[in-house]
Every structure is written in C-alpha cells, then in structure tokens.
Amino acid sequence: MSDDLAPATRAIAAGRGAHRPGTPVNPPVVFSSIYRNGADLEYARDGNPTWAALEEVLGTLDGGEALAFASGIAAIAAVLDELPIGAHVVAPGDGYSGLRMLLDDLVGRGRLTWEGVDIADTAAVEGRLDAADLLWIESPTNPLLAIADIDRLCSAARAAGVRSAVDATFATPLNLRPLARGADVVVHSATKLLAGHSDVLMGAVVATDTAVVDRLRTRRQLGGAVPGPMEAFLALRGIRSLPARLDVAQRTAATLADRLAEHPAVERVRYPGRGDHPQHALAAAQLDGFGTVISFEVVGGLAAADRVAASVALIEHATSLGGVETTLERRGRYGAEAHLPPGLIRMSVGCEHVEDLWTDLRAALEAA
Ligand SMILES: *Cc1c(COP(=O)(O)O)cnc(C)c1O
Questions:
Q1: What is the pLDDT confidence band of residue 336, given thresholds at 50, 70 and 90?
Q2: pTM for the model
C-alpha cells in the first residue's frame, strides 16, 4: 500500500488483495486448521489468510510488520517472554493494571524484575536506563492519561542498549506512530479502539526489525496465543471505520472534557487535549489527536463517583474502552491503589450524539 495515501485511506484500502474481476472485496474468513502440504503455510498456528489481511493493515498504519495475537495481553506477554531470564523491566508505575499484574506474576516466578517509574518524568526514567533491559512505555497511560516523551525516551534507550516497547492502545496508529519515533516495538490492544465495537478480543505487535518480528512470530507459534479467524475478521472490519469513529469520538470527548471542567460537581478533569493537562504541549506535539478517554474526579470522592456510575442511563456502566458506545467506571472499584485517586472515573467516549451524552452525564452528576 502506497505511503502517499493518508492513513485514513490506508485503514480502508489495505488488506484487500489485488483488484481483479470476480475476487472478493473483503478477505474471506478462512476456517481451516490445516493446509495442503508443500507450501509455507501448513498449520493454522503458523498463519492464516484472515490474520494476514489484518496484519497488512496494521503494518501499513504503524510503519512496520505486524503480528496479530489473541489479545492485547497476549501481545504484551510475547514481548516480555522474549527477554532473557533475570532481565529488568522499567515500566510506568501507573500503567495498564493487566501489565503490572503480569510483571508482578513474572517477578513472583523468578523470571524477571521490574520497577515502576513516572513515565512523564523523562529525566527520572533516563536515570533508570542503566539498570534496564527493556523500557516499557505506555502513552497516554491507562487511566491517568500521562504522556511520555517517546522521542527522547526511545533515543536514550537506544543509546544505552536498552530495548523499548510502546503500548499505544489509547492513541491508535492514527494518533501516534512510535516506530517512527524510535521505538523497537509497538503493541496494541485491538480489543479497544481498533476493533471498536466491544465484541472481540485481539492484540497486535508491530516492529521494523525483521529479526525482532521473527522472534515474536516464533513466540506466537510456540506459545499458541493465536487469534481466531472470525476475531481477526471482526477486528479488521472495525479498523475500516476507525478513522471516522475516532474523528467523531475525539471531537465529542473534547467538548465533554470542557463541559465537565466547568461543572461545579467536578473537581478535576484529565484530558490531554485541555490546556490544563500537565503535558498538554508535549501531547500536542506528539499526537495527531488527543484520544477518546477522559478521566475525572467528582466533588464528594469515592461515594459520589459510585453514585455517578449508578446514575448514568444512556452511558454504559462497564469496563474497557474504545467502543462505539460510551462507557464509564470508577477505576478504584477493583481495589484501592496508591497512585489512583479513589474517586477517579474513567470515561471512554463513543459515537453517540454529544448532546445526548452531556444530558445523561449532567443528570448523573446532579443525582450524585
Ligand atoms: C486493555 C488494554 C490492554 C490489554 O488488552 P486485552 O485485549 O484486554 O488483552 C493492554 N494495554 C492497554 C493500555 C489496555 O487498555
């Protein structure tokens, strides 16, 4: 697919095969665990034509070679599994909870060690690179929406001989392309914005170095965290409308973030697109859009936040993010964490009409 085409066009046009009369415009969903012997593809753990179409699209969007995995966490696990026993990982202390749980689990089983850092504090992270084998970056972070200086961190990591990986789930390749900014590997939970309809689990790893891609492909083959063909098809179908969905949801998120900030029941709003976000200038320089997630705290803390979550009627009180439907939840409902304000609500803005969302949100804030 030509790099001259805009990413929004490539999301729609890539992965469809040559334009020959009579061939399907969409890739077929290939349900076959075995292939006739004698060519590269013989068994479905090694590859699948439906994954290949998805990988072609993700690869062209991120500027590398993509590998689809059964979930975002399977993609992350493959990257971590690549590290030698005893390796040290430097990762955001306030990053995605599933990553931190996986790292703790690996530490508990003697596989590696890790330390949490404030990924927005570039100098502090640079100061820890001497001890690291892998720098794990997430930007924006889930759920506090901290922004990492990917250019500086990845170039410092490279100079120190440390591998770097970026979880760009919140940004998607339309807003952020970490490989072009010096990262070795980018991972996505395609479950979220990429697939976009809260109906599938899917993950991906993208890298430019062929040796890295080959090692990760081997991890997928031997570890077996392979996606189903139907899931790959659904994720690919979701990506076709990502540019349009992201455009709508991002504009709505910006409007809702501003209105929330002005509402007397709201104490603090975190959204990288707002001038009061601590890394707003960096976000503006690094991202092509500020994303669809808003985190906010209401006056009255934890109890008031629970009342907001119980009071929304249109907005779904549910976990996860990136679907066409707007969802919210109090993140601390899974247990208190030191870095997490107990009343923090994470809201994933979808594609409903902005005024309907605001009416629902305002009523819930007033009920609380
Ligand atoms: C959800 C999420 C993941 C994990 O993805 P799954 O598809 O749920 O396995 C990883 N990173 C971030 C930032 C996420 O939000």
A1: confident
A2: 0.97
Read off the DSSP letter of residue 63: T
For the chain, the helix, strand and coil percentages under 3-state DSSP, each to the nearest 5? 40, 15, 40
CA 72 to centroid of ligand 1, rounded, Å: 5
Beta-carbon contacts of residue 226 (< 8 Å; ≥ 6 apart): 44, 45, 48, 51, 69, 70, 220
Has 96 been annotated as catalytic?
yes
Q: Using a CB cutoff of 8 Å and minimum separation of 24, what contacts does 316-320 make?
A: 320/191, 320/192, 320/198, 320/348
Ligand 1 center to 357 CA (angstroms): 25
Question: What Rg, from alpha-carbon coordinates, does the chain have?
Answer: 21
Is there a catalytic annotation at residue 167?
yes
**Model pLDDT for residues 117-162, shown as the tens digit of each residue:** 999 999 999 999 999 999 999 999 999 999 999 999 999 999 999 9
Q: Which of 62, 96, 181, 330 is catalytic?
A: 96
Active site residue 121: no
Q: Which residues pair with 43 in a beta bridge?
A: 34
**Interval between CA 348 and ligand 1 midpoint (Å):** 14
The continuous run of DSSP H or E covering 2 comes out as none
The set of protein residues with a Cβ atom below 6 angstroms from ligand 1 is: 71-73, 96, 98, 138, 142, 167, 169, 189, 191-192, 201, 203
Q: Which of 181, 192, 219, 330 is catalytic?
A: 192
CB 73 within 8 A of CB 97: no
pLDDT of residue 1: 72
Q: What's the half-sphere exposure (Cβ side, CA atoms, 13 Å) at 333?
A: 16
Is residue 68 a contact partner of residue 51, using CB atoms and an 8 Å limit? yes
